[in-house]
Automatic annotation (TrEMBL):
UniProt protein name: DUF1996 domain-containing protein
Keywords assigned: Signal
Pfam families reported in the protein's UniProt record: DUF1996
InterPro entries documented for this protein: DUF1996
Domain of life the protein comes from: Eukaryota
Organism: Massariosphaeria phaeospora
The DUF1996 domain, residue ranges: 49-309
Length: 369
């Protein structure tokens, strides 16, 4: 496999797009699809949510956050790329912030332990994303007909509902989990949220020998005016013909949201392997993994996004063709070492890796679903 040359300060070894590092489901579309697929290390793990709970420290539940170091308790307006001095992402001009809830294991004795995130799947990944030691994998896809308009400075959005505990058929292609059946991610080759046998909307109910992968897909249509909305959702929409499946050529955007935006997706690999001994699971054999907001169904999975790319850097990627992974045309990259040094200080002083008697912010643990 060929790797890009190292360039001073901003360079990173990344895979040149070849059939060796492009998943099979993408190889036939090479040349007609651009998919920026890159890792971001954690910038902080903290009980903050500046989108839903601005100014609150602590917020109701714990999150893992990646991206630029301007992340703070309040980020309600403005361009977050201004004032940021570093990012944990492979593209060095991406100061956006991406965050999701944390996952915890609930042991038979009722105590909780945070589940750490693994790096991206070794197969088909670049030399940055496999070394993030946690964080998430971010996708920006330009795979729909017509022009894709990159997000604008100040843009924010939210997908999912943390209060949901029931199957929502409308979320079929927007929110899923995959149980890795063996080490090295179980030979993962199918597109995310695309396989009715491999992907589920609920957290897997049995042991996943290689861990659990979580994917969240954001809407692909924008009203063209509002950078945010009171519920952080109304200014965006999915295509009118149904959910926006990953790499879908999809239906038309509704007339209320006519502007096509990049298909944004988060991918989190939860390293559940330290908890594979069923003797440690609840005595009734029920699913033992809980998100930080008290959900052990998985239906409440949600994700937040604050756009923060510098200048027109993201638009360059969306206008390009045939770019895959963490390198595209003349877009700037960085090495993994400075990315992992980028961090913000915690605002809420709470333990992260100890065994806990309750989930952070929840003195009374949620009942089993």
């Amino acid at each position: 496999m060929l790797w890009a040359t190292f360039l001073a300060l901003t360079a990173v070894a990344v895979a040149v797009p070849t059939s060796d590092n492009i998943p099979p489901y993408l190889q036939k579309r090479q040349g007609s699809t651009t998919m920026l697929r890159f890792g971001c290390s954690q910038v902080v793990i903290d009980r903050l949510d500046p989108l839903v709970n601005p100014g609150q420290a602590p917020s109701p539940h714990m999150h893992q956050i990646v991206g630029g170091n301007r992340f703070n308790t309040t980020m309600t307006t403005g361009d977050v790329s201004n004032g940021a001095t570093c990012t944990t992402c492979a593209f060095s001009e991406d100061f956006s912030n991406y965050w999701t809830a944390n996952l915890y294991f609930k042991a038979r004795n009722g105590t909780y332990k945070r589940v750490k995130q693994g790096a991206s799947a070794l197969q088909f990944s670049d030399n940055f994303s496999t070394k993030t030691d946690g964080g998430i994998l971010v996708y920006y896809v330009s795979a729909q007909p017509g022009k894709i308009t990159a997000f604008k400075p100040g843009f924010r959005m939210l997908v999912g509902d943390p209060t949901n505990r029931k199957l929502d058929t409308k979320m079929k292609m927007q929110n899923c989990y995959r149980c890795y059946t063996g080490p090295n991610f179980g030979g993962d080759t199918a597109a995310p949220c695309s396989d009715g046998k491999l992907d589920t909307q609920a957290l897997p109910k049995d042991i996943c020998k290689g861990g659990i992968r979580s994917n969240v897909l954001f809407p692909t249509c924008w009203d063209g005016t509002n950078l945010d909305s009171p519920d952080h959702k109304s200014h965006i929409a999915y295509p009118t013909t149904g959910p926006a499946a990953f790499l879908s050529l999809g239906g038309s955007c509704p007339t209320t949201h006519p502007i096509r935006i990049p298909q944004l997706m988060y991918e989190v690999v939860w390293d559940t392997t330290p908890f594979n001994n069923k003797a440690d699971w609840p005595a009734d054999g029920s699913q033992p993994f809980y998100f930080s907001y008290g959900d052990n169904t998985g239906y409440g999975q949600h994700a937040d996004y604050v756009f923060g790319w510098k200048g027109n850097e993201l638009q360059k990627g969306m206008d390009a063709s045939g770019c895959f992974g963490a390198k595209c045309k003349d877009m700037k990259n960085q090495a993994i070492e400075p990315a992992k040094k980028c961090a913000v200080s915690k605002k809420v002083n709470e333990p992260l890796d100890e065994w806990l008697t309750s989930l952070p912010g929840m003195e009374v643990p949620m009942a089993m679903a």
